[in-house]
What does this fold into?
Amino acid sequence: MSGMELVEHWWNGGAGGHREDVIVRRGPEGTHEVELRVGARSIKREYRTRDEAMTISDGLRAVGVWLELSRLRNFATSAGTR
It folds into this structure.
């Protein structure tokens, strides 16, 4: 899907010896995409609603400690405009 907007990006900090990312994006038609990256592999699935996508994202992050990179990115962007 092109024209995707980042909603959330989570990272496990490389725990367990490999990096994992969970990324939620919103498409122009209101659909949502969840991407799971494990090392160099990537799996993407499309969902009709934000609620569906967030439920999947929450489930993928149910174990371990996750850092929300999208929140840090938003903070860094806003701090740079001051």
